[in-house]
Amino acid sequence: MTLEPEHLIPPKGYKTTFPIQEAIDEASKKLSWDDNFFVGDEDVIAVFDYDYALIEEFDTSVRWLSCCLSFIFPPAAACSLICLEPCFLKKRVQWDVYSKHLCITRDGIRFVRDKRPTCCGLSFTDAGKESKTVPFDKITDCDIKEPAGSTCLCIENVLSTVNVDTASSGATSDGVTRHELTLRGLKDPHGFKKLVWAMKRSAGNPAGAALQSAPRAETMVRGDGADAETVPLILKEIRDELREQTKLLKERAAEKGSNATLL
Residue 215: is its pLDDT beyond 60? Predict the structure, then answer.
């Protein structure tokens, strides 16, 4: 569904500070998603879908290749057979991939891994639900790594990766770079990044944040410049209106279909 321009007009009594309207407008136009995991959560501003099918295809290919290569080394092959890897490989990939959910709330970025089966799928091997929220004021960087090259020389890398960093991120003692969140396989990584920066700006001093050197994002304040919570509220109103319009369009399409059948 395409968002019409009139839906992006701020309520009366608001004004924009600094020419960064384009950033929030572009992010707001894409406030639609298929993941219904967060339905009923009033704090959610936007949900960002994972490309589950693409992630499943890529991870399955990588794991099958690893499984086949393990038979070159007898100890690795024995370990793989004992763990029943060939029997449950596809299921294990699906359990892992489809448990991931991501949204943006008024507090920060929320990443959730739902309760899921592991190993052979029996209940005593289940992994519990995990949830992590990264507050906007703690975020120091949000970068996108585009796919390039190949894995194991023959499997093309097709998944983009979004790395979210905070002050505690950085290289570890082993020389490995640690990120606060690593989000692999989002359908719209660029829209996610733009909205994260927009929300980060709205949480601080709106007028001052617009002049900082970080990526540009829109900030809306009241005429007196006092309210820093207005952007999340406006985005939520846009989201609710989008949902209502989508529902109406589906009802109209159903009515047209039934009328065509009668004719």
Answer: no
